[in-house]
Amino acid sequence: MRGRRHSLRLRLLVIALAWTLLSVALAGWGIQGLFRQHIQAQLQSELNIHLNHLTASLQVDERGRVSLSSQPTDPRFSHPFSGLYWQISVPSAGTRFAQLLRSRSLWDAHLPDLVDGLEPGRDVAMPASGPGGERLRMRVREVHPAEGPLDTLILSVAADEALWAEPISRFDRMLAVALGILVLGMGAAAWMLVGFGLQPLARLRQRLAALREGRAERIEGKFPMEVRPLVEDFNLVLSRNAEGLERARMQAGNLAHALKTPLAVMASAAQAEDPALPRLVAEQVEAARRQVDYHLARARAAAAVRVTGLRSPILPLLQGLVRVMDRVHAERGLIYDLSGVAEDLVFRGEAQDFQEMLGNVLDNAGKWARSRVCVTACCQDGELSIQVEDDGPGLSPERAEQVFERGQRADERTPGSGLGLGIVRDLADLYGGWARIETGRLGGARVIITLPAT
């Protein structure tokens, strides 16, 4: 039962059926009301026609005798208690009327007397009781003959409410049947519409099942435009997961390969009982540590890229790195210029990754600079561009590309492992940016790192 409450198909069907029932009910109520008004207006019009006929046929002689030049043609006036009646009367004592003429349908009865409310030239419609106690709709008119001794005549026409109640009841039954058939048809249409509309989701579930069972690597097929963004995002997640898995496998293989050589060297020296074993072990352990730090930095950056909302101000980070560089290269008296870095610039990522990249670049610039290292940064078109240049000898274009390869060094005579600039490019690539070296304005190398800023 809980699963049914969370069914999208059931929700759509309930909404469609509820709206259908509400719409049909309102439509039925409106149609029934309009038909009732039409029947009542038709009855009032028919009574008015009979009243006009009586008025046109009315004759009064000089003795005050009232007659009709022509009898109403409706046969119901001749059938006793048929439900359609007319009479002509004159005011007698008070509010009582003296009946002069009446239809045969009244037999020996008469229509009710009108107490008040009559105005010359204006008809009055009112409910009344018939000869058998039935409810009547009566229309009354006051007439003043131009000839004869009678000043006022009262003309009345009445009809049994059953004459219009029965057609309305019959119409209501027919309307209920028609609307019921309409509800069933619309319910069936809603069922088919929901089933047809949810077919892409069923097809998507089949593709996901094939993906889960290993029969497919992506969600393929044509889907509606409303479902297509979901499929594309899901395929993008699958691609990123596949890339992350491949990257993890490559890093594990690279780390294993990088550690294999130091371990082999130490094992060989231990078997040969080399007297320089302590120094050799220390060197190889340091090499292994650098390899482990390198791969851990890549793994940490890959995880940080997937985290949203990370923002690291870069000026405080650069100032901290410069303080470290001042101690590392204290004997050279280098000047690190950060005047080209605005205070409001931020890096969208982990502060530790930013320090890893810029720390390697600043350290490398400090090794080759003669007296000055200049750092500038700007943000444009959603990209954060950081430039670090020195006044050293610089690099040729061919050599500038080679130093980004892991294990390559610009000069074998300087200390280092050759991993610094390699990890700079790798981390920048993980964040969706890039890094390159060109000749700067100071005559030395200029390292440009571009990273996403938004």
From TrEMBL:
Keywords: Kinase, Membrane, Phosphoprotein, Transferase, Transmembrane, Transmembrane helix, Two-component regulatory system
Domain Histidine kinase: from-to ranges: 254-454
Membrane spanning stretches: 174-198
Pfam families to which the protein is assigned, alphabetical: HATPase_c
All residue ranges annotated as the HAMP domain in the record: 195-246
Main location: membrane
Subcellular localization, as worded in the UniProt entry: Membrane
Catalytic activity annotation: ATP + protein L-histidine = ADP + protein N-phospho-L-histidine
EC number: 2.7.13.3
MF (Gene Ontology): kinase activity
Stretches assigned to coiled coil: none
InterPro entries to which the protein is assigned, alphabetical: HAMP_dom, HATPase_C_sf, HATPase_dom, His_kinase_dom, HisK_dim/P_dom, Sig_transdc_His_kin-like_C, TCS_sensor_his_kinase
Enzyme class, first EC level, given as a word: transferase
Protein name: histidine kinase
